[in-house]
């Protein structure tokens, strides 16, 4: 019965190797060279291992010498497959040497079977399986040193145990065991059972090694991807801060240069007003013009100071401001430009005195940019009307601007988010970008879309603020139309 059990072990291990090799060969073109070596070795062992149990039927050359020679070649192939995990040098010479050595081994094995007796064939069989197993420890150790793969460490012990078990078969020379493979004693059954267990463990360890390797590669790729994304975000933040810093320097330089001519204009206007009063040259029209120059110059100076404060965020101060008065001021500043372009400004008639927490001058700058963009957008439209409306949405007030122009282009968002990139008319990209930042700093937002009826719709959302006490309300400077 023990002999039949050993035969069952050979058939079972041969079928496992054959089926595993066939399953892997279905994806042969996707395997690397190491996995291909192991696939060929498994197929070789499965095809040649099973005939060894039919020695009573087949000729010994086909059931003994050739299977042992090819099985030992599969052991060598597995060792070369482990080496391919860290060495990618050409293997053609080694494979040719393995083929020639296998043929020579089969010839020597068959000669010893016929002329030297069973002990010589046993020695050759032990060396054919034990030596490649022991030598395969080296590439497994190299894999462990190079990658730290824990299953490569276990593979060393599996290969060492498999080689040692094959060497144990040499005890048949001194022990009362028979030298044939399929003997009747329990010692032979136990020995071959351990050999096949270690053979299965060898397959399992290789698969585990490759899975661990892929998991490590995926982990490394994930870490590298996260590092690249973090670096990209950092570079974007640095670029963003650098652009803000550049904007601050540009704004400061422009404001510094504008202050000088504004001061000169203020001085000449005051001097002209003084001479007109002293020499009785004042007329209602001249007085109105001089008052308008002084008021506009004062307004421009305040605007310059506001821009300089905006370039320095730590110095920005907000206070409750009347949205209706600010809108009236912005419309008054641009009424002449609207008339030149033939644009009708239709202000909201039912707009309440809503207070918002924002810098009034900065909000005026926002409204001016919105109005100017709409006026320029309708330059070639047959109907030129800008309709402003007011709605209340909970704690926010919404000021809506609807024009009859061509509408926003599809890439508007790109230009709004990138203040230094614009292919529109001068000031369009910078204006909306600055407007968005001013509104965001005040807790509001800017929205835009193209309504179904045509034109462009832009909305300013601003949170309401408590009305200031009368003592804190500064009269806004009036602009002469």
Descriptive account of the structure:
The chain has 481 residues and is of the alpha+beta class. It has two domains: 2-228, Rhopdopsin 7-helix transmembrane proteins (Up-down Bundle); 318-472, Heat Shock Protein 90. Helix content is 65%, strand content 8%. Strands 2-4-5-7-6 form a five-stranded mixed β-sheet. A hairpin with a 7-residue loop joins strand 6 and strand 7. Helix 1 (2-25) runs antiparallel to helix 2 (33-49) and helix 12 (360-377) runs antiparallel to helix 14 (428-441). 29% of the residues are buried.
Shape label: rod-shaped
Distance between the termini: 117 Å
Strands of the widest sheet, in order across it, are 2-4-5-7-6
Main beta sheet strand tally, sense and closure = 5 strands, mixed
How is the CATH topology of the largest domain named? Rhopdopsin 7-helix transmembrane proteins
Gyration radius, in Å:
45 Å
The whole-number mean of residue pLDDT values reads 79
**The CATH architecture of the largest domain:** Up-down Bundle
CATH class of the largest domain equals Mainly Alpha
- Total helical segments: 14
Encode the helix/strand succession as letters: HHHHHHHHHEHHEEHEEHHEE
């Amino acid at each position: 019965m023990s002999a039949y059990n050993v035969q069952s072990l050979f058939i079972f291990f041969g079928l496992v190797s054959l089926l595993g090799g066939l399953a892997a060969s279905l994806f042969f073109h996707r395997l690397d060279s190491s996995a291909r070596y192991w696939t060929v070795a498994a197929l070789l062992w499965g095809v040649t291992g099973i005939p060894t149990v039919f020695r009573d039927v087949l000729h010994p050359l086909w059931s003994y010498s050739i299977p042992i020679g090819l099985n030992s070649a599969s052991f060598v192939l597995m060792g070369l497959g482990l080496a391919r995990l860290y060495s990618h040098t050409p293997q053609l010479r080694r494979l040719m040497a393995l083929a020639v050595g296998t043929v020579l081994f089969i010839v020597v094995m068959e000669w010893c079977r016929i002329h030297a007796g069973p002990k010589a064939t046993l020695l050759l069989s032990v060396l054919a399986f034990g030596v490649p197993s022991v030598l395969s420890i080296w590439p497994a150790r190299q894999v462990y040193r190079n990658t730290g793969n824990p299953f490569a460490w276990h593979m060393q012990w599996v290969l060492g145990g498999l080689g040692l078990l094959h060497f144990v078969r040499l005890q048949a020379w001194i022990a009362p065991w028979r030298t044939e493979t399929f003997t009747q004693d329990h010692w032979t059954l136990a020995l071959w059972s351990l050999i096949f267990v270690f053979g299965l463990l060898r397959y399992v360890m290789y698969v585990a090694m490759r899975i661990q390797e892929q998991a490590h590669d995926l982990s490394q790729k994930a870490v590298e991807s996260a590092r690249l994304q973090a670096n990209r975000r950092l570079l974007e933040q640095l670029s963003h801060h650098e652009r803000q810093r550049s904007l601050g320097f540009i704004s400061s330089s422009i404001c510094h240069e504008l202050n000088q001519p504004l001061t000169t204009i203020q001085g000449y206007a005051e001097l002209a007003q003084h001479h007109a009063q002293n020499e009785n040259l004042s007329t209602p029209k001249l007085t109105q013009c001089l008052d308008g120059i002084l008021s506009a110059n004062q307004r421009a100076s305040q605007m310059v100071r506001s821009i300089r404060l905006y370039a320095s965020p730590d110095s920005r101060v907000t206070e409750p401001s009347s949205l209706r008065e600010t809108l009236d001021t912005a419309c008054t500043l641009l009424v002449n430009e609207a008339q030149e372009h033939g644009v009708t400004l239709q202000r909201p008639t039912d707009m309440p005195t809503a207070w918002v927490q924002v810098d009034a001058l900065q909000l005026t700058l926002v409204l001016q940019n919105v109005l100017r963009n709409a006026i320029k957008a309708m330059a070639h439209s047959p109907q030129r009307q800008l309709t402003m409306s007011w709605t209340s949405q909970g704690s926010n007030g919404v000021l809506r601007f609807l024009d009859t122009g061509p509408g926003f282009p599809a890439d508007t968002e790109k230009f709004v988010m990138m203040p230094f990139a614009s292919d529109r008319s001068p000031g369009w990209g910078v204006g909306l970008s600055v407007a968005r930042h001013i509104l965001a700093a005040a807790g509001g937002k800017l929205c835009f879309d193209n309504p179904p009826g045509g034109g462009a719709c832009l909305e300013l959302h601003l949170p309401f603020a408590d009305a200031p006490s009368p003592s804190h309300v500064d009269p806004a400077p009036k602009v002469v139309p």
